[in-house]
Every structure is written in structure tokens, then in C-alpha cells.
Amino acid sequence: MSIRVGILGYGNLGKGVELALRDNWDMQLKAIFTRRNPENIKIKTKNVPVVNVSEIEKWKDKIDVLILCGGSATDLPKQTAEYVKYFNVIDSFDTHAHIPQHFNHVNEVAKENGHTAIISVGWDPGLFSLSRLYGRCILPEGKDYTFWGKGVSQGHSDAIRRIKGVKDAKQYTIPVKEALEIARRGSQEELTTRQKHTRECFVVAEEGADLARIEKEIKTMPNYFDEYDTTVHFISEEELIKNHSELPHGGFVIRTGQTGESGEHKQVVEYNVKLDSNPEFTAQVLAAYARACVRMYKDNEYGCKTVFDIPPAYLSQLGGAELRKTIL
Amino acid sequence: MSIRVGILGYGNLGKGVELALRDNWDMQLKAIFTRRNPENIKIKTKNVPVVNVSEIEKWKDKIDVLILCGGSATDLPKQTAEYVKYFNVIDSFDTHAHIPQHFNHVNEVAKENGHTAIISVGWDPGLFSLSRLYGRCILPEGKDYTFWGKGVSQGHSDAIRRIKGVKDAKQYTIPVKEALEIARRGSQEELTTRQKHTRECFVVAEEGADLARIEKEIKTMPNYFDEYDTTVHFISEEELIKNHSELPHGGFVIRTGQTGESGEHKQVVEYNVKLDSNPEFTAQVLAAYARACVRMYKDNEYGCKTVFDIPPAYLSQLGGAELRKTIL
């Protein structure tokens, strides 16, 4: 019997999950839940209902796992703990600093209700976290570096849009090639924020706006830009739409360590992703871990989990014997 | 209480494990077992006994996990199933085609005796297998490629040494840069054996040997060399010792897939390692999984496991809360 999946939230991520499920023959989309008026939402899958979230409880016994596709700022901190009362759930909560708090909250409610939750699934946190963990355990004497990009940062793009006189903007985070090479070399140097990444901004200004002031406001914005070398390009709205409508991203986790009697052998492990679509890739990761979520639930493994707790085999449709024969 | 570890076999791998344990404060080397006369073996660790393997049964209650450091050709097919009678064990069995058979054999004896075994731990099989698994589950519509090198292949070096007139030899497996680029590009082309790797041989010939014949025998050797573009260099014994005594290796696992409504977004995931010492790196992986082996045993998870069955968190000395806070 196939795994019955619900999606909550139909933005970029929710749409990505809808498509990802098509690539997984053992999963079946049962319903898409939304806070909006369902009549205004047109989805890509035939014969699947769009349901207002107020009615979600009625779906309690019709869904094996609910994939939460809301944002980390305000949606998930409430939604995950709320819906784990009724469902096994999985989310992509990505505010690193608040993960412990989110985990504890979800864990408590999940255990009370005999459900399984997996939080912070995606590529960072998620696959990159796994790379950091494997890297540190295998090369305990060493150092790791995480780089992001080249890719669009939604948070930084939003920050620029809040500046007076800015009509629209896209910000790219770019890893510095020389810094990547230093990391790979294994000399284990410290790299500063400025050394590791640059930021490139494409900005559509309102007519008559003071471009010099906008540029200065961007470059000096605390936390977002002041610690980086930032380039600002003013472009037309047409150019922005034509050349900067996609959401590519990427990144690198590099662990270097040394082994041998006096550390004479350098060992370098690198994991990297290069993504044409950040939300669609995150959606693919969520789909695979949704399968694992249902398996953990069937094993009576209730409570909150992260990618660290999931045996890799649980992500696969294949059984153990098949995996050992074909992939190991 | 620290994990009490035994090592069976004191070749390159066993020596690597001995050193790896120094980097893991929660593990303690209790004894090294050998088929040789213990008096002839000098180890790097003070106050640790070297014991003939005939006495290993006496150590039954003094060791939490035994790390088997023998070879895959003749040692491990017998040893792993034999010693799992008395110990939790872990090995680096790397003959891919025989893994299912080895697994079944070890699994049966491990279950009978209430012990835990993890087989085929290292980087391939091992970390590369994990990358292939994660890659296929996350991008079900796609293709993966595994490349090896640049590095010394012991099997191929041995094969050359068996040729008449050859005194010594080292063979490097080298991934072809253009093929790597094709794999990364995501066009999902098939790559032939010849396209993916070349082989470079450094050969010390006996005095007066027929070099042309040796070169021809190498290049036409079935399975080992005939499907590859192979280069043969004849060098002096001094040169071989000076320039080719190390055991570097490396490799790449590349998974590319497409997402979106009509596959319009390419997604590329790559894992690669660059190792100054192949056996020392494999030893590091074994040490981390030895920790996981003991944890699985304490969870009453008896029988044979592979890297696919181990929750990543089990490799770490840190608890769940600490991992979520610092690495996730």
C-alpha cells in the first residue's frame, strides 16, 4: 500500500513537494491544505482536493505523513507542534539557532500523541548537517568549512526590498574561490566571514530614487551586508524578470583532517550541491524523509527526530538485501 | 566507561586503526591479535599486549568490539563469521559482488550468538555507498557515477608483480577529467570503462627482462587492464621506493537529476575524498563505526548491519542535544 501524503502550504516548497511525489512510486498525494481560499488555488495534480486548513483534523486517519511547507520565521514554530497532534509530520525548519527549542517543543507533543516528527530536513540543515557529522566523526582531528552559493538568498533579497526607493531586488551569495581552495588544501586556516563569501545584488530602483544612498544603505546594513564585500547593480525591472527569476543555490561542506603518527597524511572530504532550483531540491529531500518518517512511526519510534537519527536505508523504497546487492 | 577495542591483524589497516583510536577519547585499545609470533611484532602503543589469535577466546569479556583488519580475499570471509561468535565485530570487506553472501553468513552467526556485526565499512564500500544511497533516494530521476583515484590500486599492482620479469610495481588508477566534467554537467550520458579511468603503471623490471613483452602483457591483461588506456613506465627500484611508497587514493560519487514539471531544473550532488593515506582513512571510518557497533549492541540490535542501517548520530561521541545544537 502506498504512503498517503498531505502537503500543508502551497508556495514554492509545497509545489516542489507535489512534483517530487511524482518521482516516488510508493507515495500518493492525498490532499493539499492551505490557509487561503481553496477555490483560488490551482494545483498541478488531477483529482487531489485542495482543503482549507481549518478542516485538516478530519483527515487524521487518511494521511500517513503531513509535509509542512511553511516558512521558518513564523509558520513552522507553531505548525509543526500543532499538527503533530494529528499526524506524523516533517518540516524544513532552518533557523539553526532555534532548532533545539523547536525540537523540544515538537518532541513533547509528538510523544504525548504517539506520532513521529522529523524536523529541519533539507540541504542545510539536512544533507549538509550529515556531511558535517560524518566528517567530524571520521576525522576527529580536523576542521570543517561550510560555504553557500552561488545562489539566491531570500532573506537578503527581502532585506534589500525593505529599503526606501527599492522596487525589487535579488541577492546572490557567492563563495570565494580562493577561500574554497584554502579549505580544500587542508592547512586548516581560519577564514573570516569576508574571506569566505561575497554578495552580489541586483536592484530595481523606483524612478528618481537616490541610487547612491540605496547602495550605501545596502553595503552598510548590519548582519546582512556590512561584514561582506558587496556589489550592487541597478537594473531594469525587465532585466530582473528575464535574468533573475530562478532560485538557484548550492554549497560546499569541506572537512580536512590529518592522520598518521605525527599527522603526516592529509585527508580531505568534500560534499557539494549545485542546484538549479533550491525549493525543488529541498522538496525532494522532504519526500525521501517523509518515507523514513512513516517507517520510524511503524517501528514505534515516536517523538521528534532529525536527519541524524534516521538509518539511511529508511529513505529508500528498496529492501536491505536489494540495497546491499546494488548500491553498497 | 570507555569502549574497549581489540584489533585483529597488524598490517597497514591494523596500524591505521591503532593510530585512529588515539583520536577518539572514548575508545581504548585493549589488545592486538595476530597470526604471527607476537614476539616479532612491535606496536606503537605502550602497555597494550600483542596476543596470538589462538588465545582470542579468552578475551571474550574484556573487549566490546573487535576490529577485523584482514584482507577481503581470504581473511574476512572466514574471520568475521568466526569471531562474531565471541565478539561484536566490524570489518572492511570490500569485494562488492560477494557482500550479500558475506552478509548472510555473518548475520546468521551473529544472531545465534547475540552479537552485532557491521561489515563493509570504509569509503567504498562505506561512505561512497552512503552517497549513492542518499543521492538515489533524493533524486530518484537521475543517474550516478562513481570514479576512483588518483590512487594506488593494490590489486592491480599485485597483478603486475605476477608477470614474469617484474620485480616490483605500483599502479595508479586515474579518473579522466573530461569524464568527471561530463558527469557533473548532468546530461546523464553513459560513460564507458575506458572513458572514465586511465591506468598508470610504474614497473621495476628484473635485469635483462624483455620490457616490450612485459608492457604488452600488462596492457592486454583481461579485466585488469585490457579495457583501459594504460601507460607503463619502467623505473629503477630506487625511484619506486622514493616516489611511490605512499598509498594515496581518492574518488568521486556524482549524482545528477532533474526536477520541475518537465525536468527543467538540473540538480547536482557530489561527494569526493582526497586521501594521502588510503589505509589510514579506512581505519578512521572503522573506528567511528566501531562506536556505532557497540551502541547497536546495547540497543539489542543483534545480527549483521551495514552503513545503511546505522543512524548517523551513533557515530558520534556527542549526545543528541549537543549534535542538534552544534552541527545540525
Q: Could you tell me the mean pLDDT of chain A?
A: 97
The number of distinct helices of chain A, counting runs of at least 4 residues, comes to: 11
**How much of the residues of chain A is beta strand, in percent?**
25-35%
What is the fold named in CATH at topology level of the domain at 3-124 and 279-327 in chain A? Answer: Rossmann fold
Global morphology of chain A: globular
CATH architecture of the domain at 3-124 and 279-327 in chain A: 3-Layer(aba) Sandwich
Helix content of chain A: 25-40%
* Low-confidence sequence ranges of chain A: none
Q: Give the termini distance of chain A in whole angstroms.
A: 27 Å
CA radius of gyration of chain A = 22 Å
Largest Cβ-defined interface: A-B, 68 and 68 residues
> How would a textbook summarize the main sheet of chain A?
7 strands, parallel
Tell me the number of strands of chain A.
14
The CATH class of the domain at 3-124 and 279-327 in chain A:
Alpha Beta
User: What is the ordering of alpha helices and beta strands of chain A?
Assistant: EHEEEHEHEHEEHEHHEHEHEEHEH
Kindly report the name of the CATH homologous superfamily of the domain at 3-124 and 279-327 in chain A: NAD(P)-binding Rossmann-like Domain
Subunit structure (chains A, B): Homodimer.
Catalytic activity (chains A, B): meso-2,6-diaminopimelate + NADP(+) + H2O = (S)-2-amino-6-oxoheptanedioate + NH4(+) + NADPH + H(+)
Pathway (chains A, B): Amino-acid biosynthesis; L-lysine biosynthesis via DAP pathway; DL-2,6-diaminopimelate from (S)-tetrahydrodipicolinate: step 1/1
Family (chains A, B): Belongs to the diaminopimelate dehydrogenase family.
